[in-house]
Amino acid sequence: MTTIQDIADKLGISKGTVSKALNDAPDISETLQKQILETAVELGYTRLRRYKNSARRLCILVEEENIQYTEPHHFGHDIVMGFRQMAEPAGFEVEIVPVSEDSQRSISYEVFMLQNDYAASFVLGFSLNDPWMTDFETSRTPAVLYDNQIRGNPSTAYIGIDNDEGMDLAVAHLKDLGHKKIGYLSSALESHIMQVRYNAFFQAMKQHGLDTDPSLAGCSFFMYECMEKHLPRLLDMGVTALICGQDTIANAALVQCQQLGYKLPRDLSIIGFDDLPISPYTSPPLTTIRQDRINIGKCGYYAATSLLNGVSIGTILLHAQLIVRNSTGVPACKKADII
Amino acid sequence: MTTIQDIADKLGISKGTVSKALNDAPDISETLQKQILETAVELGYTRLRRYKNSARRLCILVEEENIQYTEPHHFGHDIVMGFRQMAEPAGFEVEIVPVSEDSQRSISYEVFMLQNDYAASFVLGFSLNDPWMTDFETSRTPAVLYDNQIRGNPSTAYIGIDNDEGMDLAVAHLKDLGHKKIGYLSSALESHIMQVRYNAFFQAMKQHGLDTDPSLAGCSFFMYECMEKHLPRLLDMGVTALICGQDTIANAALVQCQQLGYKLPRDLSIIGFDDLPISPYTSPPLTTIRQDRINIGKCGYYAATSLLNGVSIGTILLHAQLIVRNSTGVPACKKADII
């Protein structure tokens, strides 16, 4: 196992200097400290630190551009809460660290973790082009990623809900109501989870024997493109129901369709994804697929401690839940059949 | 919540009789007891029992036709061990219950669990046509299934390794060595896990830009068909490497190829799946994808207690590990190139 001596030898400096850098002593230059920490990481010194009794510190890394967590109605709030509810009684100190693309570029993930003496991280809101996503491919300090998956690195785990199951529940619900032509609307496929849900939508449609024409999906980074380009296009194609990749898009679609003169759910059924705190208060209240956020946080903690204890968990998926409210119903054409 | 009175009312009998049936009293007929237990399950009485402090009993249900566990060299041994290593120190009594298709047909899963006062089960070795697989679609007594997945029932969880990752590691290893034409050999696609690995093989081949002709796979329930029909066919097609869905098939293929005069790994590389205890002792020692069986057992326990505590875990996958031994190497044609 790597020792302080190994690091000192590699850099041709004294053990004392290495020790100072690792213990954040004031009388060492920032440049030298950075160099020592980077060498420590390179030599695998993280492994050693990770199991030290003193290292009872965990961090939650939040990409603030993508996920909010400070208020109870924010999506990330309960995820953070669930994690802390498990970690703190177990004696861990948990720090929440907002990160940006810039802050990731300024330091590598491993050096950051070593510098702050964090044993493991819980990573929220990262997109595929966040710089540390590349670091996670080879990092050795445990990282548990919410809604992101790194294949082939035994020090990372992926936590989320089973989106295949969720999409299957959504399509089955609409099919049971009598819908046949179902569209899909989501933000751009630039995150792991949007890709997963997009594929899950077409897989569920296929399994239920429904139309899988790729033009039934509309995806864009810009909300106005979703609402003013894709939504009218899907309505023109004759869809009687829409599944949205997120509740925010579903909510916008509810409003937009009613402004276009559609009566919901008679003329169009809409299903969201996430069960955001606002979902019971949309008009009409939104049928959606729930992510149990408290339990996502709890599973995040479990995965982190498992990785710390050498149990190489790669994936934990929670069951998805369909929450039926009033934005879905029997399609008008079907009702006419019945009458 | 369902009470003993509800069960008594439904059947038009006394509370005392219901209580006798639930407590396995000797002075009640077997037929009446069965009827009472079935009614209790129907009314949701399992929910009540599940959380009783007295119900600290778990069972491991083993389909003995498919999985052995009694000896240390048996595949199931360490899975059972890992589960017990977690459950027993936590105060659970763990009973191992061998089951067969016949025993499953004689009683429903829920009635069996209630009758024996088991709070949850860990299910090993079930194939898709085991009778209780249908019960698991709607059961409410937690069931954690090794290598089987029930979608849409929040009282079940699926535990295993990440087979997509494993297959990706196997294909990447062979591609790195210089192999281009790779075949796949496995038993029949009658179990969930054989279907998963079969699909994972072609997905990995596609991702690595290699030939995905379906005829590159040979699958049969009968070992002799794998060895005498599919193996020669794949060799005739010019494969330089074989991935096998199980170590047992890989081991048979090692022997068979050498009897046909092939030198391994020069003429053919072979990779297995599972890392059975025999794998280091095949000739040559087998390169394979390891399932960490102790940790599968530990995760099984974690999933069971999570379901008991209302954390609806659907899936836990452990990272797959590639174990490189001597049954894989640079293909002869590639070596000739180098010389």
Describe this protein's structure.
2 copies of one chain form a homodimer. Chain A is α/β, with parallel strands linked by helices and 339 residues long. Helices cover 42% and strands 18% of the residues of chain A. Chain A has 14 helices and 12 strands. The first copy, chain A, has helices at residues 4-11, 15-22, 30-42, 45-50, 77-87, 101-106, 109-115, 132-135, 163-177, 192-207, 223-236, 247-259, 293-308, 332-338, and strands spanning 57-63, 93-99, 120-124, 143-146, 156-161, 182-186, 217-219, 241-244, 269-274, 287-290, 313-318, 321-323. In chain A, strands 2-1-3-4-5-11 form a 6-stranded parallel sheet. A 6-stranded mixed sheet of chain A has the order 7-6-8-9-10-12, with helices on both faces. The relative contact order of chain A is 0.12. The model of chain A has no long low-confidence stretch (mean pLDDT 91). The interface between A and B is medium-sized, with 27 and 27 residues. Strand 11 of chain A pairs antiparallel with strand 11 of chain B, so a sheet runs across the interface.
H-E string of chain A: HHHHEHEHHEHEEHEHEHEHEEHEEH
How does the helix and strand content of chain A classify structurally? alpha/beta
Ends distance of chain A: 77 Å
Helical segment count of chain A: 14
Q: How many DSSP-defined strands of chain A? A: 12
| Silhouette of chain A | elongated
Report the radius of gyration of chain A as a whole number of Å. 24 Å
Strand content of chain A: 15-25%
Strand order of the largest sheet of chain A: 2-1-3-4-5-11
Oligomer: homodimer
Largest sheet of chain A: 6 strands, parallel
